[in-house]
């Protein structure tokens, strides 16, 4: 028999960390976008470790991270590894995504 880790009983009351319903709704959203549970876990880890937007900090701006961003996008060969993830704010993410899709369409035109 393979030994299973004991089931952790969650007591009634306050859940540890984020409320369950939040995690569940986020899971559904991210899964619909093609990201799985592993990515969702990574997002939580990245935002916990980097509560401030990394690109903003680089220019001495203090902004809260809202997104776990792939530093090198998956479309450009990046991985879902922690080393390829950074905490980033909404504005930086939008700007970065716009640049990335511009690169992607330029690359597809070259083919
Ligand atoms: Zn930012």
Describe this protein with a few key phrases.
111 residues; mainly alpha; 47% helix; binds zinc ion
3D structure, described in words:
The chain has 4 helices and 2 strands; from the N terminus they run H-H-H-E-E-H. With 111 residues, the chain is mainly alpha-helical. It has one domain (21-110). It has a two-stranded antiparallel ribbon with strand order 1-2. The radius of gyration is 17 Å and the shape is flat. Bound molecules: zinc ion. Zinc ion (ZN) binds at residues 53, 55-56, 63, 88-89, 91-92.
Report the total helices: 4
The geometry reads as flat
What characterizes the major β-sheet? 2 strands, antiparallel
Beta content:
5-15%
Detail the poorly predicted runs. none
Q: What's the pLDDT, averaged over the residues?
A: 83
**Total domain units:** 1
The N- and C-terminal alpha carbons lie at a distance of 54 Å
SSE string: HHHEEH
């Amino acid at each position: 028999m393979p030994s299973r880790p004991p089931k952790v009983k969650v007591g009634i009351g306050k859940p540890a960390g984020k409320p369950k319903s939040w995690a569940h709704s986020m899971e559904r959203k991210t899964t619909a976008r093609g990201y799985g549970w592993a990515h969702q876990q990574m997002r939580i880890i990245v935002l916990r470790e980097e509560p401030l937007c990394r690109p903003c900090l680089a220019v001495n701006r203090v902004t809260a991270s809202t997104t776990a961003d792939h530093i090198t996008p998956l479309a450009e060969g990046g991985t879902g590894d922690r080393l390829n993830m950074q905490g980033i704010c909404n504005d930086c993410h939008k700007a970065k995504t716009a640049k990335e899709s511009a690169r992607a369409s330029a690359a597809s035109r070259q083919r």
